[in-house]
Structures are given as structure tokens and as C-alpha cells.
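Hi,

Apologies if this is the wrong queue. I'm a grad student, and the batch job for YdcF family protein from Leptospira noumeaensis produced an output file that my downstream script rejects. I'm not sure whether the problem is my script or the file. Here is the sequence I used:
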Amino acid sequence: MLLLSHKKISDTDLESASIIWDFLTQKDDLDKADLIFVLCSHDIRMAKYAADLYKNGYANRILFSGGLNFFTKNVFSDSEAESFAKFVRDEGIPIQDLIIENESTNTGENIQFTKSLLNRMNIKVNSVIAIQKPSMTLRVRLALNKQWSENQFIISAPKYSLLEAPHQYINLYMIINEIVGDLQRIIVYPKLGFQSEISIPESVESAFNHLVSREYNLHLIR
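Support response: The file is valid. Your script probably expects a header line. Output copied below for reference.
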């Protein structure tokens, strides 16, 4: 079990976190696409969701993108992409329908390294189902809008709530830290050219300020 550090999560903390979670979560209507593109993370539920979409005929290829970062190096023995691919192979997905990009360590690299890999493989895609954790889907949409705007993307995620987000490697306290950091990046990254800009509602900004004042700051950019 990893990252057991925690503090008492007050009702106000949880309310603020729920406001941010809802703002960060996006999900489009599903349609068939040329590729399922999984921007990997610590949450193996994303692999299961990708396998289910494949089995239901939404695409005939899955691309897993992700190396290891400071956190997932303690979760997986191989890269995120290889660990996710192993999971779906055990679910019955044929190896020939899997593509692995195992060098990226952040969302921008997920996109750029995947584009380069597809070009090298001479695989052309026009429509893509992009999968991430629910609370990362807005970030993914904004990053794709900026860095891969020529394609049509359907943004999707496994269905679970803030309270259902924890799993064996991460608890609710760390999830709240994570989404506070994700929101900060949505505010900061457009100025760095990493993603499109979006207006932040006052309620979301207030929730962010509350949680930062309560020292949910482990995932913040310093």
C-alpha cells in the first residue's frame, strides 16, 4: 500500500474537492473511431475500460501511452503502457491490435510521442477515443485542442465518482491533492503554450483557494 499519509478531510474540504472534480470531468458521447488512445496513469481501471470499448467494436486498435513517473514507478514494475497492455492481453485483446508508447512522462509527451510513433508506423487516424481518469479529461481535451487539433477526439473515461476514485495505491487525501494540481495546470499551462485556455468559474476558483489554504499542495507546481 502506497501513500498512506493523510489528514482529516473536513466536510468543507470534500465539498470543495467535489466542485473541482465536477469541473475537471468531461465525457463525450461515444462513437466508433480509428483508435482508442489511452493516456496511462496509476489507475488500471482505464485499461479495463479500453478493453471493454474494443470488445464493443468502438475501435480495432488500442494505443497505450506512458512511461513511468515519480509515482507510478512505485506502482508498476514495467512502464505504464506495458502494464496496461499486459492487463488487456489477459482480458483477451489480441497483441497485434495493441500499440505501445512507453517513454512519455506527462500529458504533453503522451500526445507528442504518440503522434511521432503513429507517423513512424505510417498509421493514419482521423477519429480517436482519448481515455484518461475522469478528473483528467478536461486537461486532456485542452491539451489535444492545442497540440493535435487536426484530429477529431472523443473524450472518455471509466465511470466513477470522487469518492470512488481511490484504489489500492492512492487514497482520497492524495486524490484531492492530485485534482488541486490538475486545476492549477489548467490555469497555468495555456500561458506556456501547452493547452487551450478556459474560463474558471468563481465557485471553482474559491474551492481551489480553500483547498490550497488547507495545504492540499503536494501536486502543485512550485
